[in-house]
Each structure stands twice: as C-alpha cells, then as structure tokens.
C-alpha cells in the first residue's frame, strides 16, 4: 500500500529528471516557439484612481506549448534568462507592444504600454540603442513606453545597470520598479535610480484588508513614493475594499483582476470598447 501510494505521488509530482528535461526542452525550443507563433503577448489594463481612466497596459508574455500546454512565465522566463535567450524574448514582446500602441495611435488613442525587463537586458550595453531603434520603427513616442524592472534585477549589478537605465530615461522612457517592497535595500537605493514609478508588490495588496502589517507597508510605499515625486501603482487589486482603501491613501494607479485579467489582444480591444461605449 505504501509503495502504491508512493507511485501515485510520483505520478502527480514530476521527478527531478522530468523537471530537468522539461526545462531543457523549453530552452531548446524557445526560438522555434517564437517563430511558430506559440508565444504571444497579453495585456492587463492599469486605471487611474479615482478617475478609472485607462492609463496604460502591461504586456505579459504567454506560451502555449504543443506538448506541455500553457506554460507560466514564472516558469519559462527564468529558464530562458538562464540560457541567455532573454534578448529574443524582450525584443519580441517590445515589438508586439509597440505595434499595439502604434495601432491605437492610428485610431487617435493614447495608451502607454509597460514591458517587463529581465536582469540580463540591463547588462547589455547595446540595449538602449536597440530600444531607440524599435521606437523609431513603430514611430511611437518614448513617453508611451514604460519598462518595469525589479529591484533585484538592478541590484544584481548596479554598476552596469545604472548607465543603461540612465540612457533609457534620457530617451524619455518611463521606468518603474516592480514588486516594490519585496527586496532588501528599497529605501536607500530608490533615490539613486532614475525611476518614475513604483509598483507595490501584489502580496501586500492582497493582505492589506486583513493584515495591519501589509496595510502599513502599502501606506508607507505610497507616502515614500510621493515624497520622492514618483507615481505609485498598486498591482494585485482584486476587490472593491482594497481599491477604495488605495484610493483613500492617494495611490495613483490600480491594476488587478478587479479591473481586468490580462487579455489577449482582441479581447482587450473588446474590453476597451465596452468601457467607452
Ligand atoms: P509581474 O511583472 O509582477 O506581473 C504581475 C503578475 O501578476 C502577472 O502574472 C499577472 O497576470 C498577475 N496579476 C495581475 N493582477 C493580478 C491579481 O489581481 N491577482 C493575481 N493573483 N495575480 C495578478 P504573469 O502574467 O503570470 O507573469 C508572471 C511574471 O512573469 C511577471 O510578474 C514577470 O515577472 C514575468 N513576465 C511576464 N511577462 C514577461 C516578459 O515579457 N518579460 C519578462 N522578462 N518577464 C515577464
Ligand atoms: Ca511587471
Ligand atoms: Ca509585479
Ligand atoms: Ca512578480
């Protein structure tokens, strides 16, 4: 019986070998997946508080693998990063995102798009030039592009990351610190970075209705952000109560399932139309 149980467990939980093999396949197949259209970009709206105006969308990558089905970016992005392939991912997402903004501009709509940056991009000296080239190709003003980066990405190698961030900022691109509050050195280094926005990590936003500690963290990030002249975005807004609390605190922008889940391009268009109708 114990053996049978053991086998059953093994049937559900992948072994180390299976995890390794899957990771290996993801890495070796990623470029082909990009070429074959298995990878796409979904967009999650961000709305202003209290106005509820759509101020931007965040581009979030999706991979539907022919064998594994949907693979979570939390799983494949780190694998792709570790294999040194994240440049291909970033330029794919950036192109898709700028093409989307271009089509909105053609319709007379200004919505900015945020793209997540990996730590590796911040070590690539040609990165800012590559971004400038993409903006020119799509004829999109830099102010409609935001890059989101985690503090751990910046702190991994600040000597290399800071000049690249400076160049991006010079171009007029907005920079946001993602998952704010989860790192170690938040307060001290924030002043040194050329950033425009902080995004409060969703773990604190989830907890703010029930946990006074989380509430205090959210409140202090809003105050700190504002005292540094930054715009403050809350991610993971799932219910009206947190939305209302954030609004009362003066948080500038909300993003989360309450407003919308990340949507494929056609569904995003329908969502936007339904709101303005
Ligand atoms: P992130 O940048 O912190 O993105 C926010 C994640 O929270 C997204 O997960 C989003 O779908 C999810 N989310 C948004 N609102 C809510 C909510 O109200 N409740 C809950 N429970 N979740 C919410 P997703 O799309 O699975 O992405 C996971 C992570 O993968 C992202 O975290 C980001 O670090 C990374 N990622 C996604 N797309 C890209 C990309 O194009 N490039 C890079 N380098 N990383 C990416
Ligand atoms: Ca993000
Ligand atoms: Ca985040
Ligand atoms: Ca995250």
UniProtKB/TrEMBL annotation:
Record domain EAL: where: 23-276
Top-level taxon in the UniProt lineage: Bacteria
The protein's name: Diguanylate cyclase/phosphodiesterase
Organism field: Prauserella rugosa
Lineage: Bacteria, Bacillati, Actinomycetota, Actinomycetes, Pseudonocardiales
């Amino acid at each position: 019986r114990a053996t049978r149980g053991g086998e059953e467990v093994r049937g559900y939980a992948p072994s180390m070998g299976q995890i390794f093999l899957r990771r290996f396949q993801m890495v070796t197949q990623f470029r082909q997946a990009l070429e074959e259209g298995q990878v796409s970009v979904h967009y999650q709206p961000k709305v202003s508080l209290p106005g509820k105006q759509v101020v931007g969308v965040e581009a979030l990558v999706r991979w539907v693998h022919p064998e594994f089905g949907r693979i979570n970016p939390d799983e494949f992005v780190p694998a792709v990063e570790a294999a040194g392939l994240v440049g291909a991912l970033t330029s794919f997402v950036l192109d898709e995102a700028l093409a989307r903004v271009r089509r909105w501009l053609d319709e007379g709509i200004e919505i900015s798009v945020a793209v997540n940056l990996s730590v590796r991009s911040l070590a690539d000296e040609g990165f800012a030039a590559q971004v400038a080239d993409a903006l020119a190709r799509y004829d999109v003003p830099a102010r409609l592009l935001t890059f989101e980066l985690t503090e751990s990405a910046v702190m991994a190698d600040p000597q290399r990351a800071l000049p690249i961030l400076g160049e991006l900022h010079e171009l007029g691109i907005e920079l946001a610190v993602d998952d704010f509050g989860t790192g170690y050195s938040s307060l001290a280094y924030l002043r040194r970075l050329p950033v425009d926005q902080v995004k409060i990590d969703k773990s604190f936003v989830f907890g703010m209705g029930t946990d006074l500690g989380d509430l205090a963290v959210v409140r202090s990030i809003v105050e700190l952000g504002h005292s540094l002249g930054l715009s403050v975005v809350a991610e993971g807004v799932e219910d009206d109560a947190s939305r209302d609390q954030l609004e009362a605190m003066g948080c500038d922008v909300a993003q989360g399932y309450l407003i919308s889940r990340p949507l494929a391009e056609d569904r995003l268009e329908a969502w936007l139309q339904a709101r303005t109708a």
